[in-house]
Design goal:
It is a single chain. The protein is α+β, with helices and mostly antiparallel strands. Helix 4 runs antiparallel to helix 5. The chain folds into 3 domains: 59 residues, no CATH class; 60 residues; 150 residues, Cupredoxins -  blue copper proteins (Immunoglobulin-like). The chain is 36% helix and 19% strand. The strands form 4 sheets. A 6-stranded mixed sheet has the order 10-7-3-4-5-14. A 5-stranded mixed sheet has the order 6-12-11-8-9.
Length: 360
């Protein structure tokens, strides 16, 4: 390897003649004698190869490199963002629509102080520049009552407006308050487990795991609890997030105003399987929902205390499935801790039975 730098240096000193060698800006100058790819033969007809290889004697090379990198970053960013869904800004129910209104109203109120502040900062920097002889210089100035009034009144008004919007919205969007509708609400009992979701339909006497099917246009009354650590139930396109806690029942009312498929998730860290604790939400027409109920009742296991004990075992990546029958009173037994809660996440490395990624 010692002969290669010497030959390269000799070839470079001979210029662009026959058999000359050019070293790129990633070569031996960086102290890496293994970068043989950066030693480029130069053809006799001139320096076109230098432009192709990005050599250090071409002043356009860094600019072209930055241009190509920037273009690739832009394309990759666009592709990544194109796969994202604006869930919070694409509501599919009255609760989510009200949440969006509060979010946008709060944004406008905050921009009322942010935009003038940015404009004033730029205006002051431009007016009091060193070359502006018209700018007044007051080294002894210390206080202005009018300026103090403006400085304090604008943030105060912003806080009052934000507080009013939040206070009114919090009362109007009380999770336990029933939604106005002529249809009878569908009762769904939700249990957060490690690390999956159990949905019990008490009126239909069926249940499902990691899959929530509801009729569109019908209010959904959720009763939620946890069979392990505290968790959080959230369907962004339908509305409010609410926590689930062991030994307690929380209430939530949502409604999907049109058929569609949505993503539900856990929004509170709960251990090893938190990142995969998602569930699918399918809003169907009334006829399609009844068809699904009949198909569920025709096939699948039975959910009772024995099968629930097996379901409560910690697991990651549980595929959605249904129970053709659900034992009455099972949800109340979980809430009252008649059925013992799960152990929750443990300290240290997870067991291989829980996380296959764990090294032995």
């Amino acid at each position: 390897m010692g002969a290669l730098p010497a030959a390269a240096a000799a070839g470079a000193s001979r210029g662009a003649g026959e058999g000359a060698i050019r070293i790129g800006h990633h070569g031996f100058a960086h102290g890496n004698p293994c970068c043989v790819r950066d030693v480029h033969p130069v053809p006799p007809n001139g320096g076109e190869a230098g432009a192709m290889t990005g050599s250090s004697d071409d002043p356009r090379a860094p600019r072209q490199y930055v241009h190509h990198v920037g273009r690739r970053v832009f394309v990759l960013s666009f592709l990544c963002l194109s796969s994202c869904q604006p869930a919070l800004l694409d509501p599919r129910g009255p609760v989510a629509l009200a949440d969006e209104t509060i979010l946008l109203d709060s944004l406008v109120i905050m921009l009322a102080i942010v935009v003038p502040t940015i404009a004033a900062t730029l205006g002051f920097a431009w007016w009091f520049r060193a070359s502006n002889s018209k700018a007044a210089y007051w080294p002894s100035w210390a206080y202005s009552g009018q300026l103090e009034l403006i400085v304090w009144s604008v943030p105060l008004m912003t806080i009052i407006l934000l507080g009013g919007v939040i206070w009114i919205g919090a009362h109007q969007l009380d999770p336990a308050a029933p939604l106005a509708s002529s249809a009878k609400p569908l009762e769904v009992q939700v249990v957060s487990l490690d690390w999956k979701w159990l949905f019990i339909y008490p009126d239909q006497a069926i249940a499902s795991v990691n899959q929530l099917v509801v009729p569109a246009g019908v209010p959904i009354h959720f009763s939620l609890t946890s069979a392990s650590v505290m968790n959080a139930f959230f369907v962004p396109r339908l509305g409010s997030m609410i926590y689930t806690m062991n030994g307690m029942t929380t209430r939530l009312n949502l409604l999907a105003d049109s058929p569609g498929d949505f993503i539900g998730l856990s929004s509170d860290y709960s251990g090893d399987g938190f990142s995969g604790m998602h569930f699918a939400v399918h809003a169907e027409t009334a006829e399609a929902f009844e068809t699904w109920v009949k198909a569920t009742r025709a096939d699948g296991p039975i959910l009772n205390r024995q099968t629930y004990a097996g379901l409560a075992v910690q697991s990651i990546g549980t595929r959605p499935f249904t129970y053709r029958s659900a034992e009455p009173g099972l949800f109340q037994a979980i809430v009252s801790r008649e059925l013992p809660p799960g152990p929750g996440p443990r300290s240290g490395r997870p067991e291989t039975s829980v996380s296959p990624r764990t090294e032995p």
